[in-house]
Design goal:
Elements (H helix, E strand, L loop, with lengths): L29 H6 L22 H15 L9 H5 L15 E5 L6 H11 L7 E5 H11 L1 H9 L3 E5 L6 H16 L3 E6 L13 H12 L2 E5 L19 H10 L3 E5 H8 L7 H4 L5 E7 L5 H16 L4 E5 L8 H4 L4 H23 L2
Parallel strand pairs: 1-4, 1-5, 2-3, 3-4, 6-7, 7-8
Length: 366
């Protein structure tokens, strides 16, 4: 496809320079962190009725049944409103009844846990300001932005808190979240969470398993665990991820597609180290496609974990990823894939593979 002529007719108009993630250093105010605790765009329209259980996995059908009942049992009578509680006003919240105040969805990546968690959020009979939905990382970031006591006051006025990808990666976060959720349960807040590991098994293969297990055992008492079996739905009956494209193809798409970004992989990894993970979502604001050149294995675990967060934010926003270099299933070393964070890495590979399939349409449309 040739470029149009310049007005003088003397030559083509140069293609506009694509956007760059590396050129962005977004600032995210605390009130935006609170306001954005809703299901991400990918899960705006999901409901229990749109979840398609695998007929060979009865636990998936059972999970829908239990969660529908859980949502129906949550009234909208939480004290205060999200806005009023943010500033510490409003009546004291109701005390929670005895027994578990939450559900815990356990299963491998790609069995639809986030779909079900978002469906629970949508089905709970309360106004959006009284329901919160976020990843475990986003919850700890909220505490960092507001402070612990302000976070407790903010969320205590909610009827439901949904926590996606509940992964405890260090003892400090374990104590922080355990204490926070304990106070929220006392305030009458219902809890729902997803994870790839049962509550009593989190922390195995990590830094200090005994400390993790001691903290999590008390926390797990707040949840009824629901096991969801099955294979990754993103790959059920679907072809393998397309092979990487050439640098020229990726660059061409980035210059031709409106709202596309273009970055070399190594500089992007370096840039992620300078941007707090709580801002990775804002990093993708307005981006309609991410184009990467020179994808290669990540060099260390810290870099790998930052890339996992970016992959999650791009997947939430349904941003296709077109790349040259190595395929995404070669991002992480065997040591990483066999270590304590392996489920995070497999999730990232699964999600990036799905986004790579989406990006193939960009190449085909040129």
């Amino acid at each position: 496809m040739s470029s149009p002529l310049a007005p003088s007719g003397t030559g083509p108009i140069p293609d506009p320079a694509p956007l760059s993630l590396c050129a962005r250093e977004p600032h995210v105010p605390a009130d935006r962190l609170v306001a954005e605790m809703v299901p991400p765009p990918r899960f705006d329209s999901v409901r229990f009725g749109t979840y398609i259980p695998d007929p060979n996995q009865p636990s998936q059908t059972e999970a829908v049944r239990v969660l529908e009942g859980f949502a129906a049992g949550l009234d909208s009578g939480a004290a205060g409103s999200g806005k009023r509680r943010l500033f510490g006003f409003g009546k004291a919240p109701k005390k929670a009844p005895a027994g578990p105040r939450g559900v815990y969805l356990d299963g491998g990546y790609g069995v639809g846990k986030t779909h079900l968690l978002a469906s629970l959020w949508h089905a709970t009979p309360a106004e959006p300001a009284l329901k919160a939905f976020g990843t475990f990382v986003e919850l700890t970031n909220l505490v960092g932005a507001l402070g612990f006591q302000q976070t407790v006051r903010t969320l205590s006025g909610h009827r439901l808190l949904c926590i996606d990808e509940f992964e405890l990666d260090d003892p400090g976060d374990t104590v922080l979240v355990s204490t926070l959720l304990g106070k929220l349960v006392d305030a009458g807040v219902a809890l729902a969470a997803t994870s790839n590991t049962l509550p009593g098994k989190l922390g195995e293969g990590r830094f200090a398993a005994a400390d993790f297990l001691r903290e999590i055992q008390g926390l797990s008492a707040h949840f009824r665990a629901l096991r969801i079996d099955g294979e990754d739905y993103r790959h059920r009956g679907l072809p393998e991820a397309p092979p990487p494209y050439s640098d020229e193809q990726v660059t061409g798409v980035a210059r031709a597609a409106e709202g596309a970004s273009l970055d070399a992989f190594s500089p992007l990894l370096e840039h992620l180290a300078r941007v707090h993970p709580s801002r990775y979502g804002a990093l993708a604001d307005g981006i309609k496609a991410v184009c990467l050149t020179g994808v290669h294995p990540v060099p260390d675990q810290s870099t790998a974990l930052r890339l996992v967060v970016l992959a999650d934010r791009l997947y939430d926003r349904e941003v296709p990823v077109l790349a040259s270099g190595l395929p995404f299933d070669q991002l992480f070393s065997e040591e990483m894939l066999n270590g304590g964070y392996r489920k995070k890495y497999f999730r990232a590979i699964s999600r990036l593979t799905a986004l790579a399939r989406d990006a193939g349409k960009l190449v085909g449309s040129r």
